[in-house]
Specification:
With 370 residues, the chain is of the alpha/beta class. The protein folds into two domains: 188 residues, Glycogen Phosphorylase B (Rossmann fold, 3-Layer(aba) Sandwich), CATH 3.40.50.2000; 166 residues, Glycogen Phosphorylase B (Rossmann fold, 3-Layer(aba) Sandwich). It is 41% helix and 16% strand. It is built from 14 helices and 14 strands. An eight-stranded mixed β-sheet has the order 3-4-2-1-5-6-7-8, sandwiched between helices. Strands 11-10-9-12-13-14 form a six-stranded parallel β-sheet, sandwiched between helices. It starts with a strand and ends in a 5-residue tail after the last helix. The relative contact order is 0.12.
């Protein structure tokens, strides 16, 4: 198959879960003998990289405006795809659904990974939320195949839009990293810190995690990995909170080997997202065998099952959970092994890639579009 992958910031992965997904999937499809092109935003691209892990990298510009960056880049990508020879398209993000007719006009069939319910993010105003709801409807009506990454999102599309979807989660089986450059750079000891990883957006609660930590006794550092280009006020608040507790370490965005170093050597991982389906960072922390503390909501429970510790922010819930863990860590040891076993059973990248391969091959074998 000749596959075009559109709608993410592209590869190498340097931003978030969609980019990790694009990289891991493209690499495996390429290894299986398919010709894969990943469309990448110019400001996120690695200079001079035309191919990565067996996949072609096609770099195009995007408007650096929060409400237009995704759609502007995907529009240019769709126009470029229309000029080239592809058998099938994998489009990421329901926000791109209005562009589906451009691809259909070229006779291309499209699988759409809708991601989570983006309209629930507080960064969007009334118009933004209305736009995303329209995009959900268009995704359900126009995509040749809808892919959801969690059962809770699959149920939502069935209930709200009467659209069946294929549920394919993300993978979490990462290779063990070599070296410890990230730990040395930040002055950390193996198993000597707690880790939080996320884009700094309101629904991911980096500020609430930082605010909960001063009341946790002891001298174990809390390392916050992440950032956000369009959330400057929240980033300033996190920095202010970090300045009030010397144990809170702001690592900034970290990717690749150094990200895995921080993940595999953490004593525990904190996951505080409110919105979305399967979050790659949570699955990866479980795959690394970390003790996972997760904000108690349906998507996070679906992923962690009984292999993590749920918490709430109400009544000092996170503070209490971390204090108990640091006081008696051996009581929690079994959870790391249970998390790793759960990932091996449910969240392997090879299985994810095989499932996408079946979806895309099914679209290729369908009768051509008129």
């Amino acid at each position: 198959m000749r596959v075009a992958l559109l709608g993410t910031r592209g590869i190498p992965a340097r931003y978030g879960g969609f980019e990790t997904f694009a990289e891991e999937l493209a690499a495996r499809l390429a290894a299986a003998g398919h010709e894969v092109t990943v469309y990448t935003r110019a400001h996120a691209a690695a200079p001079g990289v035309a191919a990565y892990r067996g996949a072609r990298v096609r770099t195009l510009p995007a408007l650096r405006v929060k409400a237009l960056e995704t759609l502007s880049h995907t529009l240019l990508s769709c126009l470029d795809v229309s000029r080239r020879r592809f058998d099938v398209v994998l489009l990421c993000n329901a926000a791109n659904a209005p562009l589906l007719p451009l691809l259909h006009a070229r006779g291309l069939r499209v699988a759409l990974n809708v991601d989570g319910l983006e309209r629930k993010r507080r960064k969007w105003g009334r118009l933004g939320r209305a736009y995303y709801r329209v995009c959900e409807r268009l995704s359900a009506r126009w995509a040749d195949a809808v892919v959801t990454d969690a059962a809770v999102i699959q149920r939502y599309y069935r209930r709200a839009w009467r659209r069946a979807s294929v549920m394919i989660p993300y993978g979490g089986d990462l290779p063990h990293p070599e070296g410890d450059s990230a730990l040395r750079r930040l002055g950390l000891a193996p198993e000597g810190y707690l880790l939080y990883v996320s884009r700094f957006e309101p629904e991911n609660n980096p500020d609430r995690v930082a605010a909960a930590y001063p009341a946790v006794p002891g001298d174990v550092p809390l390392v916050l990995v992440g950032g956000a280009p369009y959330a400057r006020a929240l980033v300033r608040r996190v920095r202010q909170l970090a300045s009030e507790d010397p144990r809170v370490v702001l690592a900034g965005p970290v990717y690749g080997d150094e990200y895995r170093q921080l993940l595999f050597h953490a004593r525990a991982y904190i996951h505080a997202t409110e919105v979305g389906g399967t979050h790659p960072a949570l699955v990866e922390a479980m795959g690394a065998g970390r003790v996972v503390f997760f904000l108690d909501n349906m998507p996070n429970r679906e992923v962690a099952g009984g292999a993590g510790v749920p918490f709430t922010f109400a009544d000092g819930g996170l503070t209490a959970a971390l204090s108990e863990f640091l006081a008696a860590p051996r009581r929690f040891e079994r959870l790391g092994a249970a998390a790793q076993a759960r990932v091996a059973e449910r969240y392997r990248w090879d299985d994810v890639a095989s499932a996408y391969e079946r979806v895309l091959e099914g679209l290729c074998s369908a009768s051509p579009r008129a």
